[in-house]
Amino acid sequence: GAGVSQSPSNKVTEKGKDVELRCDPISGHTALYWYRQSLGQGLEFLIYFQGNSAPDKSGLPSDRFSAERTGGSVSTLTIQRTQQEDSAVYLCASSLTGTGKETQYFGPGTRLLVL
Amino acid sequence: GENVEQHPSTLSVQEGDSAVIKCTYSDSASNYFPWYKQELGKRPQLIIDIRSNVGEKKDQRIAVTLNKTAKHFSLHITETQPEDSAVYFCAASSVQTGANNLFFGTGTRLTVIP
Asked: Which of A30, B8, B41, B104 has the most crowded CB, counting CB atoms within 10 A?
C-alpha cells in the first residue's frame, strides 16, 4: 500500500517568508509525528498528533513553528518568518496507534532551504 | 526529557567484518529502543527494535543488545556488506509524560569498504 508522502520534496524560500509543508500519513494510522533533521544531525522531535487528542508540541523550537492535522489525516507544518537556521530536512512519520512501542514509518522528507 | 547519545559518529569496516554501534539513554522509564537505517537521500527505515523485557534480539546478521541497568543498548552487524553502508540511528521511547515520540541519537555513518 501507499506509504507516507510529503510535499513539496524541496522548498527554497527567502528569509522572512512563511512556508507550509504537507504530510499524508499511511491510511488508518492515528499517530503522526514531525521531525527535523539538520545537516549531519539526528532527528529532532517537533510535534506529535494522536487521534483527537491535543497534540504534543513540546519539541517545537519557537512560536514561529506550528502544525495542524485536519480530519485526523493530513498534517501541515507551518514555519512563519523563516530564518536561515530553519534550513533542514523536515520528516513526517506515522504509526498505527501511537502507543510508543510500534514502528514509525517515515516519509521522504521536505528539504527546506532558507536563503 | 530523554537524552540519547550515540557513538561512534563514523565507522569504517572492511567487508565481512563486524560493526558495533553503541547508544546510551538517560530516562530509566524508556522501554522501547528501535534502530533506523537511512541510506543516502532516502527516508529512515526501521531495521530492528527491542523492548525492555528482553536483553537481546537477533534478525539474521543484525542483533541488538540492551542493558537496562547501565542504560545502554548496542547494534551489532556481522558479515558486513557494502549495502550496509548508511547512517544508523538509535532511538528511545519515553512514555513517562504520555508522549510517544522517539528520541533519536545523532547517528552513525557506517561505511563498508569492499
From this structure: B104
Q: A-side interface with B, Cβ within 8 Å?
A: 4, 31, 33, 35, 40-45, 48, 50, 56, 58-59, 91, 95, 98-101, 103-104, 106-109
Name the residue among A110, A107, A82, A84 with its Cα closest to residue A25.
A107
Looking at chain B, which residue has its C-alpha nearest residue A92? B43
Nearest to A108 among B43, B51, B95 (CB): B43
Strands A75-79 and A65-69 turn out to be: antiparallel
Tell me if A11 sits within 8 A of A113, measured CB to CB. Answer: yes
Report CB contact under 8 Å: B99, A48.
yes
Is B49 close to A103, i.e. CB distance below 8 A?
yes
pLDDT in tens, B25-69: 998 888 899 999 999 888 999 999 998 888 999 999 999 999 999
The full DSSP string for A30-79 is -EEEEEEE-TT--EEEEEEEETTSPPB-TT--STTEEEEEGGGS-EEEEE
| pLDDT tens-place string over residues A6-15 | 999 999 999 9
Mean pLDDT of B86-93: 94
